[in-house]
Amino acid sequence: MIKKLFTMTSSSQMLVAMFIGFGVGIFFGESVGWLSTVGNAVILLMQMTVLPYILVSLIGGIGKLKKSTATLIFSRAGLIMLLLWLLALVTIALMPLSFPFVESASFFSTSSIEPATAIDYFKLYIPSNPFESMAAGYVPAMVVFSIAMGLALIGMEGEHKQQILTFMHTSGEIFSRITRGLVKVLPIGIFAMSASAAGTMGVDEFASMQVYLISYFVLCLLLTFWILPWIVSSLTPITFHQALSIAKAGIVTAFATGNIFIVIPVIIEECKQIMAEHNQLTEDGATLIEILVPIAFTFPNIGKLTVILFVFFAGWFNGTPIDITAIPSLSISGLLSLFGSVYVAIPFMLDLVHLPSDLFQLFVMSGFITGKFNSIAAVMNLFTLTLLTAALFHGCLKLSPPRLIKMGLGIAAGTAITIVLLRVGMGMFIHSPEITSGVIANMQVADKVPTTVERQFPQLGKTPTHPIADLQTIRARGTLRVGYIPSNVPFSYYNNAGQLVGFDSAMASKLAEDLDLKIEFIPFQKDKLAESLKAGFFDIAMSGLAMDIEQMDKLSYAEPVLELNLAIATRDHMVNRFKSTERILSLEEMTIAYVEHSDIIEEAKRKYTNLNFVKIPGYKNFFRQKSDKYDAVVISAQAGSAWTLFFPGYGIAILENSVRYPVAYAVAQNNQSLLNYVNNWQKLRKVDGHQDAIYNYWMLGQGAIEEKPRWSVIRDVLHWVD
């Protein structure tokens, strides 16, 4: 058995390693999660030779061309190659339209407010310092530098040029030998990453991977069996059936072996034969085909470009789809980075669009399934490029308007039908996860003090008033009275059990516990806060109160307990419209609701004269509206994220110029003893970690969902471990 494994081809070993890894992960579960370290180490080793190999292979490959051959290839084949790349990139960018709509939401994440690092396109594409470009991993810049050196070598003659070419060729052989040696340990990395993923990945994550695999397979099949042969049949004398027939042997071989290189002789002979059958092959034409195929092989093919779809999937999977404005940059950078290895290109592209780097493990895990399919697209790409270039060389490439229209309509119709069928098909079987509201609606405050919750609002002039109680009076009374705003998620709201819960409810309970008092919660309306405190309805207001300049001479705020980030909550499909000032200014007939922040809203009214701002009593009036009376609401990112758990059809847009504002607790004016105690108490609970623990639970959702061990055979079937 072991001997058979060592005699297998490398691609077979990788497939076996992947399936064994899955088995080990399912059997042992989370106990093999540490294997991801081994997998990452192997992948990093595989990346070791990539950048140097790009450098020497491009310089040597282009530099050895004759000037006439280079002119022919870069002027004719180069143009066709660019157009095919463009078509492939557009098709790949359209494929995410087939991803099913999954209505989901999540707790607030601090990463959502971190400023995105601006991309330095000059450094990314222009190798002003090639050594810096290589050290920083700017693959596009390295490709530009290598092509420039290769082109410069073409115009040189003499022994020195030959020495450089020999050095480049020898270096390329060295790097190839290193890579071939490392490929022998790659199955170990595949095994380790597959075992770790299968042992730690949740069922929902596995289900989501179906979206990528299905859409990727369909993309490769669409390119291989429709778009590329349709282009050949539309613009050359070769029929659609003939285009598929001549590619059949190469496609089958590439799919079975995962190796495109061994198919090159087949592609050359089949292209020469089909051109000869149509009496369109001269001696120079045959030479062109023999030169073109090996050179084209060294450039990124359409099969390789299809891996860019993973980055689009990663955005969908992460809940942050790639913005349409980022697609051109992603496509160009992805194309240039794919002059090297996908193991460098994918992490580079994930970083470019600010997606978590650990998503790369999903790509590696699926790479040896998807690799079979991108091989067939690569083979058909080489056939198409060669046949179109040969037809152009022999003057039989038909570019008349009727043929171009036929080609365009065929490609558009095939792509549209495929995307629609795929969207409908996946939409029927892949559904939104049934979570969100059930999680936040069942969260509880760990009550350690007797608690009473009043639901009736006290009314000024009707409800009996009380003298303002200082700390000594409150202790003597034995009860701390806390004012709260109902339905003020996630600060104070009722859960499914009818209990008052939330961040500030938990903080208030902790304050009462430290004072060794009972606690009574009393509701209030925010516009009557100062009057309610003065009337003695409650001692302190703790309910996500934004510090208000207009209220500061009527009550006393404690030190800020939190700093929140101002954001916009709106329907999911409208979120991107609020992510930049330019887009907001272009909006028309939009009604923006707000509950607080009157001073900020006044500034916004002057800046965004195209928007209509309307004040509403509470956030529930926006999220529970029956009609689309309000298009968006101004809210904190923290509170907005919590509301979207109840209403997952909404999303949060962090404003371009991040605005922060303080939230504090309020006491009656001149209640200095209580104010001093609360300030000092807050400092203590911040330092000792209690406030952070409460924040992490209510704002970030840490611990809100009970973490159960991943199902495994060893635990759940054999019961060998607890």
UniProtKB/TrEMBL annotation:
One GO CC term, this protein = membrane
Going by the UniProt record, its keywords in alphabetical order are: Membrane, Signal, Transmembrane, Transmembrane helix, Transport
Q: Which residues cross the membrane?
A: 12-29, 41-65, 77-99, 135-154, 185-203, 209-232, 244-268, 288-317, 329-353, 373-397, 409-430
Organism whose genome encodes this protein: Shewanella woodyi (strain ATCC 51908 / MS32)
Topology within the bilayer: Multi-pass membrane protein
What is the protein's major site of localization? membrane
Q: InterPro entries under this entry?
A: Na-dicarboxylate_symporter (IPR001991), Na:dicarbo_symporter_sf (IPR036458), Solute-binding_3/MltF_N (IPR001638)
Q: Which domain of life is it from?
A: Bacteria
Write out the annotated subcellular location: Membrane
Which protein are we looking at? Extracellular solute-binding protein family 3
Its family remark reads: Belongs to the bacterial solute-binding protein 3 family.
Any keyword Cell inner membrane?
no
Q: Which GO terms describe its molecular function?
A: symporter activity
Where is each Solute-binding protein family 3/N-terminal domain found? 479-702
